[in-house]
Amino acid sequence: MGTAVEEKKASPKIEESLDLLTSTQITFKEALDKLGYSKEMYELLKEPLRMLTVRIPVKMDNGSTKMFTGYRAQHNDAVGPTKGGVRFHPEVDENEVKSLSMWMSLKCGIVDLPYGGGKGGIICDPRSMSMGELERLSRGYVRAISQIVGPTKDIPAPDVYTNAQIMAWMMDEYSRIREHDSPGFITGKPLVLGGSAGRDKATAQGVVICIEEAAKKRGISIEGARVVVQGFGNAGSFLAKFMHDMGAKVIGISDAGGALHDPNGLDIDYLLDRRDSFGMVTNLFKNTITNQELLELDCDILVPAAISNQITASNAHNIKASIIVEAANGPTTLEATKILTERGILLVPDVLASSGGVTVSYFEWVQNNQGYYWPEEEVNEKLRKNRIRAFNNVYEAAQQRKVNMRLAAYMVGIRRMAEASHFRGWV
Ligand code: NAD
Question: Hey, which of 135, 299, 363, 382 would disulfide with 228, CB 3.0 to 4.6 Å?
């Protein structure tokens, strides 16, 4: 009898409804098998080494006390301290946090950072909380996880619905607990507290560089290329702006409420001006289409930059883009990846495409450690070099091994932590 992973892999029908953790484990196993690692290595890497669940009491504005549940996962620290964002969302769950920490390990491996992967999350809806409640929740989370985090242990950062202000509260709380200023405890901070120039736009910049490299491989010129972006938050809105400024025609964007389409190109500056802090803008328009219709628009480049499980076996046959670059985490299922690859669509996977954020987070941590800060041009130049190298490493691995870009990215990302675990004598 095979393992659960092997059994699920055998059935594409079951595969389609796999949770994030199982599909991540399937691809981890496939990558390790291709690289010739033992079953023991898979057993080591198939889940985080450490997973902390905390309950956080928060005094609400109406005088009541509400309990919140939070998590911190540390996947593998063989290479160095773990690193990864903290997500505030009503749908955060333990397996999602575990999977995201494993993806962070891959991202750090792909872009060659001296970190393993970590991730955190709190089950909450920040859209219905006051600033005071959010501050008390952020500080309470840091008190609850303070024993296992720190500049040389595990370094948090922003993720969905967390931002520079939340990072500032968390850094302040940690510094008070440790009784010294600790800017290197967290990244994505405001500039005046040791943030890095260019961090807010880094994920989008990183995706743009992947789009440029992918377009070169496919002989598509960015000038005039028709681009569709799902999601108009931190990643999606900056990305749409960069593509627009580079001469591409952004013909579709969306948010949680719906999507906008104009085959002649949308006025991105106008939309950026009007979007709210949660990335909503379509509520101001009457003529909208659905997110599903947006994904199937006739275009050259499609960028899912919102949530997971958007391209599945049910719509993968209808996608018209010739390049898909995943800015979001997990927007495409494994079965859809297979269909898109068979159709000859170049799919640049999330663990490669969205690793610009953690790259500049690393630059922020380095600057904090040395107490010397770089101008934005220097940050962007270092980011560009790093990304071009990472993209081409994965692209070449895919060509040489005759595998799709997702499996190639997993192989590139996993190799270093497997080697480091081996050298440490863990396996
Ligand atoms: P965000 O919260 O700033 O924006 C999310 C956007 O997605 C908003 O426009 C929101 O309206 C839209 N959205 C939410 N639910 C939706 C739905 N059901 N259908 C369509 N759109 C929906 O988040 P972000 O920071 O831009 O992150 C977006 C994605 O990129 C996430 O998957 C995140 O994990 C990934 N990512 C972000 C970063 C980063 O630095 N921001 C780094 C790596 C990966």
Answer: 299
Q: What is the pLDDT of residue 19?
A: 84
Cα–Cα nearest to 172, from 152, 146, 197, 201: 146
Compute φ and ψ for 309, nearest 5 degrees.
55, 45
Distance set, CA 412 to CA 37, 105, 108, 389, 393 (Å): 13, 11, 10, 12, 8
Closest residue by Cα to atom 17, ligand 1, is 256
Tens of pLDDT, residues 287-317: 999 999 999 999 999 999 998 899 999 999 9
| Closest residue to atom 29 of ligand 1, CA basis | 328
Residue 258: which H helix or E strand, with range?
Answer: strand 258-261
List, in sequence order, every residue forming a beta bridge with 227; answer none if it has no partner.
250, 301
Task: Pick the catalytic residue from 29, 119, 201, 249.
Answer: 119
Which residues, judged by CB distance below 6 Å to any ligand atom, belong to the binding site of ligand 1? Answer: 159-161, 203, 230-236, 254-256, 279-280, 291, 305-307, 327-329, 354, 357
Active site residue 34: no
Residue with the nearest Cα to atom 25 of ligand 1?
Answer: 234
- DSSP assignment string, 169-214: HHHHHHHHHHTS--GGG-SS--GGGTPPTTHHHHHHHHHHHHHHHH
Cα(138) to ligand 1 centroid in Å equals 20
- pLDDT for 2: 36
The segments of the chain whose pLDDT lies below 70 read: 1-18
Report angle CA 185, 189, 192 to the nearest 5 degrees: 110
**Cα(349) to centroid of ligand 1, in Å?**
16
List, in order of start, the domains of the chain with CATH numbers: 48-181 (3.40.50.10860), 202-353 (3.40.50.720)
Ligand 1 atom closest to the Cα of residue 354 is 43
Cα 90 to ligand 1 centroid, rounded to whole Å: 14
**Rounded to 5 degrees, what angle do the CA atoms 111, 112, 116 make?**
100
Asked if 383 and 3 count as a contact pair (C-beta separation under 8 A), the reply is no
Q: What is the pTM of this model?
A: 0.92
The confidence score (pLDDT) of residue 10 equals 36
3 state SS of 382: helix
